[in-house]
Automatic annotation (TrEMBL):
GO terms for biological process: cysteine biosynthetic process via cystathionine; transsulfuration. This is Cystathionine gamma-synthase. Belongs to the trans-sulfuration enzymes family. It comes from the Bacteria. The lineage of its organism: Bacteria, Pseudomonadati, Bacteroidota, Flavobacteriia, Flavobacteriales.
C-alpha cells in the first residue's frame, strides 16, 4: 500500500516515513550532529552538513509534505523565518497584495524590512476577493492571505482568490497556522505555498518555535530549498523530533480543541457580560458559510469582547483566570488568554487597531484540550468580576 494514498489520520503517523535502516527504530532518531563523515572525496550517505540537510529534519519535512498534500516541504527556525524565505523570492520593484488583517509579525516584516528594500505592499480587505483584481499589474508577484485570521477569525475564500492568482500567474501564499493541516489544506484549494508557524498547532505543546512551508511545484521548491540552505534559518534536530512527535496527535488534539471551543463560544454568546463573540463555527459569524465549505471544523481560537469594552474590564477578568494563563501564542494543549490590544497588536496606534476591530475589551482565548466543564467554570468565575 502506497503511503501517498493513506487517509489523513494515517498520514499523521506514517506519511513520508521510511523504516530506519540501521536498527529498525520505530521513531526516527534525533541526529544531533552538525556534520557527516564522507566515505571518500565527494562520496557521502546523503547528508554532508546539517544546514543543508539533516535526517531528523528530512523526516519532519516529508511528514509536513504528506499532511499538507504537497510534494516538497521545508522546516525553518520559526514561522517568521519561513515567511522571510518566501519574501526572498522577490526583487526590488516587485509588488505584493496582502490581506490587511494580518499576523502582526508578518506586517512588521513586510513594512519595516522588505518595503525599505524596494518591495511594494498593497494591503487590502481580501474578505471581498474582488478587491484584489484592480491592484494586479505586471509587477505583482505574490498574494498573501491567512484564514482564519488573528485575532478576529475572519474567513477568507481561498478558492476564489486562487482562481484570481492562477489567472494572473501570481503566487498565492496561505498562512495556515490558525487552521492547521487537519482543518484546512490550502494547496488542494489552489494555493501555491502553504505556510505555518509550527510553533502553534503542529508542535502543539508550547515547547518549540518553528516554521514550515509546503509546495507542489518543483521549480518553486528548488528556489525555496536554495534560500533555506543559503540563508540558513533551519531548526535543530531536537526541535524537528518534537514537531514530528506533535504531528502524530494533531487530529486527536484538533478534535478536542474544536469541541471545547464550540462549548466555550456558545457559553460566551449567551453570557450577559459579553458583548461580542468571534468563532467561525457560530451561525452569527459572517464567514460561517465559507468556513464550512473549506474547513473540516472551526478551530480552537475564540475571541470575545467584554462588557464596557475597556482595558480595565479585561484586567479584572484575566486576573481571575486560574486555568487560562495570560500569554502570547496559541495552539498548545493548555488554554491561554491574550489581550491583543496590548500584546500582539500593541505596536499599532489605538486608531489603527480599532479600525480593524481590535478594541481594548477584546480577549483572545486559545482553547486547550482540558475538560470543557473546567474551562467554562474558569471563564464563568472570571466574568463574575
Ligand atoms: C505565530 C504566528 C506566526 C509567526 O510564527 P513564529 O513561529 O512565532 O515565528 C505567523 N503567522 C501566524 C498566523 C502566527 O500565529
Amino acid at each position: 500500500m502506497s503511503k501517498d494514498n493513506l487517509r489523513f489520520n494515517s498520514k499523521l503517523i506514517h506519511g513520508g516515513q521510511i523504516p530506519d535502516k540501521a536498527f529498525g527504530a520505530i521513531v526516527p532518531p534525533i541526529y544531533q550532529t552538525s556534520t557527516f563523515k564522507q566515505d571518500s572525496l565527494g562520496v557521502n550517505k546523503g547528508y554532508e552538513y546539517s544546514r543543508s540537510g539533516n535526517p531528523s529534519r528530512a523526516a519532519l519535512e516529508r511528514s509536513l509534505t504528506s499532511i499538507e498534500s504537497g510534494n516538497f516541504g521545508f522546516a525553518f527556525a520559526s514561522g517568521l523565518a519561513a515567511i522571510d524565505a518566501i519574501m526572498k523570492l522577490l526583487n526590488p520593484g516587485d509588488e505584493v497584495i496582502s490581506a490587511n488583517n494580518l499576523y502582526g509579525g508578518s506586517h512588521r516584516l513586510f513594512t519595516q524590512i522588505y518595503q525599505d528594500k524596494g518591495v511594494k505592499f498593497h494591503f487590502v480587505d481580501v474578505g471581498d476577493p474582488n478587491n484584489i483584481s484592480p491592484l494586479i499589474n505586471d509587477k505583482t508577484k505574490l498574494i498573501w492571505i491567512e484564514s482564519p485570521t488573528n485575532p478576529l477569525l475572519h474567513i477568507v475564500d481561498i478558492k476564489k482568490i486562487a482562481n484570481k492568482s492562477k489567472k494572473h500567474q501570481v503566487l498565492l501564499v496561505v498562512d495556515n497556522t490558525f487552521a492547521s493541516p487537519y482543518l484546512q489544506r490550502p494547496l488542494a484549494l489552489g494555493a501555491d505555498i502553504v505556510m505555518h508557524s509550527a510553533t502553534k498547532y503542529i508542535g502543539g505543546h508550547s515547547d518549540l518555535v518553528m516554521g514550515a512551508l509546503v509546495v507542489s511545484d518543483e521549480s518553486l521548491a528548488n528556489k525555496l530549498y536554495f534560500i533555506q540552505k543559503a540563508t540558513g534559518a533551519v531548526p535543530g534536530a531536537m526541535d524537528c523530533f518534537l514537531a514530528l512527535r506533535g504531528i502524530k496527535t494533531l487530529a486527536l488534539r484538533m478534535e478536542r480543541h474544536c469541541e471545547n471551543a464550540r462549548s466555550v463560544a456558545l457559553f460566551l454568546e449567551s453570557h450577559p457580560s459579553v458583548e461580542k463573540v468571534y468563532w467561525p463555527g457560530l451561525k452569527s459569524h459572517p464567514g460561517h458559510g465559507i468556513a464550512t465549505s473549506q474547513m473540516k471544523d472551526y478551530g480552537g481560537v475564540v475571541s470575545f469582547v467584554v462588557q464596557d469594552d475597556s482595558r480595565e474590564a479585561v484586567e479584572r477578568v484575566v486576573s481571575k483566570f486560574e486555568l487560562f494563563s495570560l500569554a502570547e501564542s496559541l495552539g498548545g494543549v493548555e488554554s491561554l488568554a491574550a489581550h491583543p490590544a496590548s500584546m500582539s497588536h500593541g505596536a499599532m496606534t489605538k486608531q489603527a487597531r480599532e479600525e480593524m476591530g481590535v478594541t481594548d475589551g477584546l480577549i483572545r482565548l486559545s482553547i486547550g484540550i482540558e475538560d470543557k466543564e473546567d474551562l467554562i467554570a474558569d471563564i464563568e468565575n472570571a466574568l463574575k468580576s
